[in-house]
Amino acid sequence: MKKLLFILMAFLAPLARAGDMLEGYLFVVGTIPATLAVAQETDLAKPEFRETIAALSAEWSEKCSARVDIWHTALISSDQSYWPADMWVAYLAFEETAEASRAAAPFSPCLNGGYTQHGFMVFPSIYQLCAMGDDGSDLYRQTCN
């Protein structure tokens, strides 16, 4: 019964409000001013949002000779660290502690300029759904384009 209730609640939850929130420390190697607005949840479903993340990740990964992930500061908060508004964050690692984040960062020319910073990172379901790719469903076509 609990499993059925959980599944039912998951489908009834507004898509824009559901998602994952992770807490930890990012090993940041750079920030880039964002040209895309992230003012409402539907902004995360736009192809431009996903394409910008992919392009910046590829650019920074090549520059750093290691995988670099990108996320938007509108989806990062912290009571311990300041996150400027409307920026893309390039990071090499995300771990539970600052020490683990620094240790998990792969060897890279970008290590010297990097720093650890605490953050709550939100990955809304609407973004996760669209980032998985076109599965041919009406939900994807209506939501992610």
What's this entry about, in short?
This protein is α+β, with helices and mostly antiparallel strands.
Keywords:
five-stranded antiparallel beta sheet, alpha+beta, disordered N terminus, 34% helix, 145 residues, single chain, 28% strand
Summarize the structure in words:
The chain is of the alpha+beta class and 145 residues long. It has five helices and five strands. The chain has helices spanning 2-12, 47-64, 98-104, 125-131, 138-144; strands spanning 19-33, 69-72, 76-77, 87-95, 115-124. Strands 2-4-1-5-3 form a five-stranded antiparallel β-sheet. The chain is globular, with a radius of gyration of 17 Å. Mean pLDDT is 87; it is low at 1-17.
Mean pLDDT across residues: 87
Radius of gyration: 17 Å
How large is the count of helical segments?
A: 5
> What structural category do the secondary elements indicate?
alpha+beta
Number of beta strands? 5
Mind describing the biggest β-sheet?
5 strands, antiparallel
